[in-house]
Amino acid sequence: MSECLFCKMVSGEIAPDKVYEDDDVLAFRDISPQAPHHLLVIPKEHIATLNDLEARHASLLGKMYLAVKAIAKQEGVSESGYRTVMNCNSDGGQTVYHIHLHMLAGRGMQWPPG
Ligand code: 5GP
Ligand code: ZN
Description:
Elements: H1 5-11, E1 18-21, E2 25-29, E3 37-43, H2 58-75, E4 82-85, H3 89-92, E5 101-105
Antiparallel strand pairs: 1-2, 2-3, 3-5, 4-5
The structure holds guanosine-5'-monophosphate and zinc ion (ZN).
Guanosine-5'-monophosphate binds at residues 5, 16, 28-32, 40, 87, 93-96.
């Protein structure tokens, strides 16, 4: 059994508040939302950080962004807008070592991020 929190969500060992799923990608609501809509989009394959991406993952990353597009429509925020973020390692603020795309919406975002 994987010790990775997000792999446990993929396997069903932990049940997240799921908003989207296909063969390659899973998306669920963040447990500690930083905006009115805060979703995490993950690949079902365990990839620890952006540094572990390989050329064979290119289409998988595209599928993650296509999932964001579908979720934005589902959540009704396509036109108002949203932000996507993927953190890498400690300076990037990564705390869960299975890559995930944050999707935040429902309020005006600040720039630069903290
Ligand atoms: P990171 O800091 O690695 O970019 O983002 C990890 C995200 O995972 C955080 O926003 C955190 O709130 C979220 N998270 C951590 N544990 C859980 C959990 O058990 N369930 C859900 N749904 N989100 C989690
Ligand atoms: Zn994992």
